[in-house]
Amino acid sequence: MSTHDPALPPMRSPADRVRHALLFECLALLLVIPVGAQLFGLREDAMGVIGIGSAIAAMIWNYLYNLGFDYSLSRLTGSVHKTLSIRVVHTLLFEAGLQVVLLPAIAWYLHTTIRQAFSLSFSLALFYLVYAFFFNIAYDAIFPVSRNRETEVPTV
To answer: Using one digit for the tens of pLDDT, what is the confidence trace for 11-28?
Structure first.
């Protein structure tokens, strides 16, 4: 029995959302750890802890946020299609929500004040704003939303 309601627009499957989050974070870490360590004068292992901790928090937030955003978008517009302006809003809201968690965690880990941790956290946010924008455009092009979600089998 199919759970697909033809009246609802197609959405990504849970497996596809997991693939999206994993690819997003793994590719980002390959860039963030060495570049962040160099830019902020941190050892790569310290930047790795910050990067991996941020990635874990971001993967959880990514899954929940994108599910909620797509659900809200489909309710408001009847589609999960994202225009350029919707992609900008999507990315800004994602990063703002993530910073609420990450900024205090980074300050705690580095044994510094929130104000002092802000430059690292803000720099990460700027990187991820640009990265997320282009990653999501590429992801949508490479892995388009399937009409028959229940038969979709993601491949990595």
So the answer is: 888 899 889 988 998 999
Both structure tokens of 27: 């590719």
How far apart are the two ends of the chain, measured CA to CA in Å?
27
pLDDT in tens, 49-100: 999 998 888 888 888 998 999 999 999 988 888 899 998 899 889 888 988 8
Query: Do 44 and 34 meet the contact criterion of CB atoms below 8 Å apart?
Result: yes
DSSP 8-state class, residue 41: T
User: Which residues, at least 6 apart from 44, have a Cβ–Cβ distance to it below 8 Å?
Assistant: 33, 34, 37
Taking alpha carbons only, the member of 27, 8, 124, 20 closest to residue 62 is 20
Three-class HEC string of 4-17: CCCCCCCCCCHHHH
Residue of 154, 5, 124 whose CA lies nearest to 54: 124
Main-chain phi, psi angles of 115, to 5 degrees: -60, -45
Beta carbons of 11 and 80 less than 8 angstroms apart = yes
Instruction: Output Rg (C-alpha) for the chain, integer angstroms.
Output: 17
Rounded to whole angstroms, the Cα distance separating 72 from 117 reads: 33
What does the alpha-carbon distance between residue 86 and residue 88 come to, in Å, rounded to a whole number? 5
